[in-house]
Design goal:
- There is one protein chain.
- This protein is an alpha/beta fold.
- It contains eleven helices and eight strands.
- It is 47% helix and 15% strand.
- Helix 10 links the parallel strand 7 and strand 8.
- Helix 1 crosses helix 2 and helix 9 packs parallel to helix 10.
- The longest helix is centred in the first third of the chain and has 27 residues.
- Bound molecules: the ligand C=CC1=C(C)c2cc3[nH]c(cc4nc(cc5[nH]c(cc1n2)c(C)c5CCC(=O)O)C(CCC(=O)O)=C4C)c(C)c3C=C and fe (ii) ion (2 copies).
- The site of one fe (ii) ion has 2 residues, from loops.
- Belongs to the ferrochelatase family.
- It catalyses: Fe-coproporphyrin III + 2 H(+) = coproporphyrin III + Fe(2+); heme b + 2 H(+) = protoporphyrin IX + Fe(2+).
- GO terms for molecular function: ferrochelatase activity; metal ion binding.
């Protein structure tokens, strides 16, 4: 059997160049039902993302989900779309450019590329390009601070799936989590502190993480525990006492029980308990996206205010904050 995806160059063996591959989730090409459908079809067909028997899920996915959700999601994407396109893509490209510039400034000759797990630029196209350019040592940095199987695990699958057919394999490093790395915690704490300096300390800081079915936790996924650890370390660095902050989980999908407490239910509840001034930060997102800009800064703000909340502010993701880019450089430094 012929090996898959072999270009002529793949026979040439080592040529000593190194690369860093930043990986994120991906986003639709356009805020239209058609483009969102294409994106969701790829995303939601990933067995790491939806863990129910394949045949049953394919029936539900194609019979219901992909008929209804693309139009609804496209309307939400339209609310956050800018002249630069999807915020997740725009910010990811800026992160790549900033890391390139920083590593070059530090005297490193390493290549820095961006790939997306779903959609473009695909993991396989970027890996093939690196190979044909003579790169034979790759450090993969999935931009998910807390390891989870649906995100980090799936990013690894995409890399492994492409490399499976290669005759000559590059050296590989894979950074699986950075939820408790001091550089990550201090970048996050500094961005929260900046908000507190401008807007005052809120009654409560809500750390809202992307959710996951609770079942995954019981099956051994460490994500929930890693999220709580990030929060504890950030709270320690900010000197917050218990009661001054809390963890919630957002972006539920489907009818199963997900990790809780749910962010939206919490936003409806807090004002009834006398908490009328909150700041929300989303430490599972390395870049702002639909789930932060529309769901948190949009929907959850409305829920909070509707329930009697008076001050709501969303603290942006670390995006291309220099401390964030510096953290990335430190994470990959041992491998360059
Ligand atoms: C269906 C199950 C899902 C799991 C499990 C899940 C986990 C998970 N996701 C992120 C980060 C992001 N998710 C984003 C969007 C998004 N997520 C799901 C579903 C699951 N995510 C869907 C269906 C969507 C698409 C949007 C929609 O139709 O509602 C995004 C934003 C993408 C964008 O284009 O802006 C990010 C980022 C994490 C960290 C995570 C961890 C458990
Ligand atoms: Fe998600
Ligand atoms: Fe959402």
């Amino acid at each position: 059997m012929a090996l898959k995806g072999l270009s002529k160059q793949q026979g040439h063996g080592p040529r000593g160049k190194k690369a860093v591959l930043l990986l994120n989730l991906g986003t639709p090409d356009a805020p239209t039902p058609k483009a969102v459908r294409r994106y969701l079809a790829e995303f939601l067909s990933d067995p790491r993302v939806v863990e129910i028997p394949k045949l049953l899920w394919q029936l539900i996915l194609h019979g219901i989900v992909l008929r209804v959700r693309p139009a609804k999601s496209a309307a939400l994407y339209q609310q956050i779309w800018t002249e630069q396109g999807s915020p997740l893509m725009d910010i990811s490209l800026r992160q790549r450019d900033a890391l390139r510039a920083l590593l070059a400034e530090q005297g490193s000759e390493v290549r820095v590329e961006l790939a997306m797990r779903y959609g473009q630029p695909s993991v396989s196209s970027v890996l093939q390009q690196l190979h044909s350019d003579g790169v034979d040592a790759i450090t993969v940095l999935p931009l998910y601070p807390q390891y989870s199987a649906p995100t980090t695990g799936s990013a690894f699958d995409a890399v492994a799936k492409e490399l499976m057919g290669w005759r000559y394999l590059p050296s590989l490093n894979f950074i699986n989590s950075y939820h408790d790395r001091p550089e990550f915690i201090s970048a996050l704490a500094a961005s929260i502190r900046r908000d507190f300096e401008v807007n005052g300390k809120p009654q409560k800081l809500v750390l809202s993480y992307h959710g996951m079915p609770e079942r995954n936790l019981h099956l051994g996924d460490p994500y929930y525990c890693l999220c709580l650890k990030t929060s504890r370390l950030v709270a320690e660095e900010l000197g917050l006492q218990e009661g001054e902050y809390m963890n919630t989980f957002q972006s539920r999908f489907g009818k199963a029980k997900w990790l809780g407490p749910y962010t939206d239910a919490t936003m409806a509840q807090l004002p009834t308990e006398g908490v009328k001034d909150v700041a929300v930060v989303c430490p599972a997102f390395s870049a702002d996206c639909l789930e932060t800009l529309e769901e948190i800064a949009g929907q959850n703000r409305e829920i909070f205010e509707h329930a009697g909340g008076e001050r709501f502010r969303y603290i942006p993701a670390l995006n291309d904050d220099p401390a964030h880019i510096d953290m990335m450089a430190k994470l990959v430094a041992p491998y360059l």
